[in-house]
């Protein structure tokens, strides 16, 4: 007979390679807290409904709490023979309290158990991500307040386009993060569904109380359909989607700052504490932190694609394929949290070279749109104004001048509508 907790109908032991191949303990040990919390609520419910006695539930809960302490003190042994965290905890409970342990899995399957653990985990991690977003948003807001008068070229196609305030640049990222926060909170709302009681897929004939479990575990809703409850990984895909989108934003911020820190732009300098050196070139100061944020974005996208692809062809209901949701999820949580935690310090300590930003604004044709709009205000159709100013730019390039170097007489060669006030209103250059 097979020694597994499910070994009754088996005549042979599991092949060692199969044990190795099917085990998830290396990563799902991450879920120990959620698993124990879920089991304690389940045991209380079994006692409340009279399915087990109050004493039995008390023994089970005491055992589970001891196991939690063992895990947290590094006194717990893991082995691939026991497959996953659920089996490990149950087996250890047997060692501690004997046959009563066998009552815990009444009216429960690992299918609804693992679904429950994952819901609890995702909900909790979303809170951590949202805290990280709040801190980063605070940093961006502070920077935007400090740079309300700092001008910097704004770019489209990575060509100097129009002068902007650095404050608005930081606020752009602030707003992206605000939407990200909304997406994570929505994902949390959608993850707030309690699957336990679905058992393998078809519920149970035992008189369980799912509302009691829901309340014990702080969920606001219960899955209405038991097949859906064990088959659903939408909440994971939503978390991974929201994570991918926030990583797009963090990666674009990283890219901007990498460019700005080059000698070619020379708009910022990263603090030594947030830069790394080269092993061969003594002069180098590299933006590795930012490059890694940009690089790690790829793995977060990959994790989303893995789970989407893993799910798309699965027949209802639970399939073991779904065990493959864990590593991408855990990896994404770690990656997003680490990127969020490193950015505020990097942003706060970087040196902003206002003078170079201003010089870049002055050293360009970035005020061209201003001249076109000046003519529009005098009644010229925009398309025509655009062409006039285009000719002025072309003239300046030939003469090695900037638009602001043209005096009103020269400007009148392009349009008689130019008057002295074109200089007064030249906002692009009046900013100090
Ligand atoms: N380790 C499994 C997972 O992560 C737990 C559920 C196993 N269920 C089963 N019927 N084999 O999905």
- The amount of beta strand, in percent, is under 5%
Strand order of the largest sheet: 1-2
CATH homology group of the largest domain: Fumarase/aspartase (Central domain)
Helix content: 55-70%
Shape label:
elongated
Distance between the termini: 84 Å
CATH fold node name of the largest domain: Fumarase C, Chain A, domain 2
* Total number of strands: 6
Task: Specify the structural class.
Answer: mainly alpha
- Write the H/E string, N to C: HHHHHHEEHEHEHHEHHEHHHHHH
Secondary structure tally, helices: 18
Q: Indicate the radius of gyration in whole angstroms.
A: 31 Å
Mean pLDDT: 95
Major sheet characteristics: 2 strands, antiparallel
- Number of discrete domains: 3
Residue stretches low in confidence (pLDDT < 50, at least 5 long) are none
Bound molecules: arginine
CATH class of the largest domain: Mainly Alpha
Architecture of the largest domain, CATH level 2?
Answer: Up-down Bundle
Task: Write a brief structural summary.
The protein has 432 residues and is mainly alpha-helical. Helix content is 61%, strand content 5%. It folds into three domains: 13-106, Fumarase/aspartase (N-terminal domain) (Fumarase C, Chain B, domain 1), CATH 1.10.275; 124-355, Fumarase C, Chain A, domain 2; 365-429, Fumarase/aspartase (C-terminal domain) (Ribonucleotide Reductase Protein R1, domain 1, Orthogonal Bundle), CATH 1.10.40.
């Amino acid at each position: 007979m097979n020694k597994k907790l499910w070994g009754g109908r088996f005549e042979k032991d599991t092949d060692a390679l199969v044990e190795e191949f099917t085990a998830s303990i290396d990563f799902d040990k991450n879920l120990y807290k959620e698993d124990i919390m879920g089991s304690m609520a389940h045991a209380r419910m079994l006692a409340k409904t009279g399915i087990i006695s109050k004493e039995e539930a008390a023994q089970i809960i005491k055992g589970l709490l001891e196991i939690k302490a063992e895990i947290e003190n590094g006194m717990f042994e893991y082995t691939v023979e026991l497959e996953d965290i659920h089996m490990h905890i149950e087996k250890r409970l047997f060692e501690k309290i004997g046959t009563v342990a066998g009552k815990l899995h009444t009216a429960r399957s690992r299918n609804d158990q693992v679904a429950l653990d994952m819901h609890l985990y995702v909900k909790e991690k979303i809170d951590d991500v949202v805290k990280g977003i709040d801190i980063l948003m605070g940093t961006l807001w502070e920077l935007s307040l400090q740079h309300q008068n700092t001008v910097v070229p704004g770019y489209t196609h990575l060509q100097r386009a129009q002068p902007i305030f650095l404050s608005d640049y930081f606020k752009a990222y602030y707003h992206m993060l605000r939407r990200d926060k909304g997406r994570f909170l929505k994902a949390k709302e959608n993850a707030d569904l309690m699957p336990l009681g679905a058992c393998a897929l078809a519920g149970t004939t035992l008189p369980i109380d799912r509302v009691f479990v829901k309340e014990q575990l702080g969920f606001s809703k219960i899955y209405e359909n038991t097949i859906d409850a064990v088959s659903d990984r939408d909440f994971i895909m939503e978390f991974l989607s929201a994570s991918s989108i926030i990583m797009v934003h963090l990666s674009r911020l990283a890219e901007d700052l990498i460019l700005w820190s080059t000698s070619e732009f020379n708009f910022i300098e990263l603090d030594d504490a947030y830069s790394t050196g080269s092993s061969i070139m003594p002069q180098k100061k590299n933006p590795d932190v930012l490059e890694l944020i940009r690089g790690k974005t790829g793995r977060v996208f990959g994790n989303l694609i893995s789970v989407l692809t893993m799910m798309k062809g699965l027949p209802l209901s639970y399939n073991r394929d779904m065990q493959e949701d864990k590593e991408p999820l855990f990896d994404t949580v770690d990656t997003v949290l680490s990127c969020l935690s490193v950015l505020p310090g990097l942003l706060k300590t970087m040196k902003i070279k206002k003078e170079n930003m201003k010089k870049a604004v002055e050293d360009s044709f970035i005020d061209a749109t201003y001249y076109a709009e000046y003519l529009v205000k005098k009644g010229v159709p925009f398309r025509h104004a655009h062409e006039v100013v285009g000719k002025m730019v072309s003239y300046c390039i030939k003469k090695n001048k900037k638009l602001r170097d043209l005096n009103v007489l020269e400007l009148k060669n392009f349009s008689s509508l130019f008057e002295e006030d074109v200089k007064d209103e030249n906002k692009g250059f009046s900013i100090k």
